[in-house]
């Protein structure tokens, strides 16, 4: 059901020098599926990450935050079990996984970042993961990104990966990334899971700044159902094996490339949103500040009534206006708001535009992709987010998952 | 599909002296259905009301707020068209309806409160309403509450009405009310439409205070889909034809009766929620203040993942914990939260309770009614709200409505 999204061509995913990926079928929850990923990083690598703001953040998230203080040498990712809502026992289990990976890779447990995704509130089957580790380590290769994208899927129907190359002053740098996620998607600092690497040499501070900015412009600008996962994490690795990015200009070029890859991945998550049949860009302009534009955009994107109208391809525009009115923006004057569907002006000054004809709205919304654009007309700020519709299949997938 | 909800027995709805109701089939949107209600109030009546906080509040809401400054003599309610998102033209049309009603009832247009519900952003068909008015006025009777409840239905499947009698120091008082609403339900100060009347003599100030308090304990404590309507209104009339409520004790007795009727009506809206198959009470206890308890309760009640798990009768408890963690309560410690399904302790100190068995959760959630109870364990405040599940039929109803 993914909207204009195909599995990436593995040949187009550029390897990143200094970053190897290995996959295993560990049987975490189900047999015979890739469910374990190990990423080994060269000692020259710098790593930055942003994590979920959910107060029930998972044990691996707590541990990964702690382990980020040291230079990171490896990431271990399992699907099938989120190790969330598992208390102190969950922390112990996540640490056991780090220890086993550290033994296999000859580093310290504190240099391993653990990631888990899957069912919440069930004990992590550590033994199965540990048993699967040698297979994953034996599989470590730089040209393994597509297989890695497959290994981190849960309700995803399509693996998600993207890759670009940019020219810095001292040579060509590569940026490649993978992500997973289809439901429980309303990242707050990060997506379900996104891993991105560049071979460029980037200082820790610069990498951290870029990562935060990129997260806001990509994974923090998407929503499927407004539910922020307990396990969200977006990790950005600069392996240091390629050209250096130190000048302002190079950092800017590299940040743009990282944003490009991150946006492709984030949008892929929405295109593959649970039950999605539409990919919708929501752009809010002329607000007082970006925060209020985002607030309005999310109010539109989270309204079940708006989302079911998207599904129906029905330009029930009143629902969009009602959502804007509900966004909780102080002093917003409804009588100044203009609304567009793609390029069609459907509402002006808070009311239906006299020239608007229903057929125009239907034509826009029947397409698999379209843009809802709201003008608040009270400032110069803007924000863009991406979302999908709410279909029968969203309910089906989430009523049947786990049972 | 309504959950444990039947049409009220008209014989059990006590008339309120000084409040007459008349119904007509005006063909506002569809022919041959009751879609126009006139309520005539005795000159002795006091009226208080609370309205939607949606910034796109409808023309009739704007006008009703203005007209509330004068003693109210009549209410005119139409379904089929919300007269919302209609700008200045919508205000003119709402005023025309008030004028026509005032002519028919021999009062001032400024003494008529207009209410509209139905499709948003389409011009109100004033001529049809004006043509229907004589029929409604000719039908005015005190014993007409059930027919009135039917006349204000839109996607409701069951008319909603409730009635109680209480003894005040100077005699027996009656409280009777009707409401409508099934979708776009997350009232913020009021429900879609709720009209409640008592024959008790109550001062304007007292009535206003009671109305605000009652709204918070009833219509403001329910949610179907988190969408706040543009037309929400809750009106409370004290006709002054019955016993006086002036002492603190009498006011308390009367307020309790009004709360009782309002809660019955509010819960009826949830039981008849679009596509609802479950009626769920969400109670959050031991919070620092009521506001944070409500925040957590609404985070649970609005999560599409939690709502689809309700639909499936699947105790996917991690989704409830994740929703609590997302509520945006500062400093909330996940490791202190306990969670109950009815009387079953399912999670303790943020993790699954060791004694909890899946069958217990399934047994609780397979019932048409159950309670989710979260203990934050950081204070003494509590809050209760009522919600329903998210089913295939919610999507069906809202994808097909209007089209």
Number of separate helices of chain A: 11
Spatial gap, N to C terminus of chain A:
22 Å
- Helical content of chain A (DSSP H or I, runs of 4+): 25-40%
CATH class of the largest domain in chain A: Alpha Beta
Predict the CATH topology of the largest domain in chain A: L-amino peptidase D-ALA esterase/amidase
Strand percent estimate of chain A: 25-35%
Describe the protein in words.
Two copies of one chain form a homodimer. With 403 residues, chain A is of the alpha+beta class. Chain A has two domains: 262 residues, L-amino peptidase D-ALA esterase/amidase, CATH 3.60.70; 122 residues, ArgJ beta chain, C-terminal domain (Ubiquitin-like (UB roll), Roll), CATH 3.10.20. The first copy, chain A, is 33% helix and 25% strand. The first copy, chain A, contains eleven helices and 16 strands. In chain A, the strands form three sheets. In chain A, strands 9-16-11-15-12-13-14 form a seven-stranded mixed beta sheet, sandwiched between helices. A five-stranded mixed beta sheet of chain A has the order 3-10-8-7-6, sandwiched between helices. In chain A, a hairpin with a 2-residue loop joins strand 12 and strand 13. The longest helix of chain A has 24 residues. The model of chain A has no long low-confidence stretch (mean pLDDT 90). At the A-B interface, helix 2, helix 8, helix 9, strand 14 and helix 11 of A face helix 2, helix 8, helix 9, strand 14 and helix 11 of B.
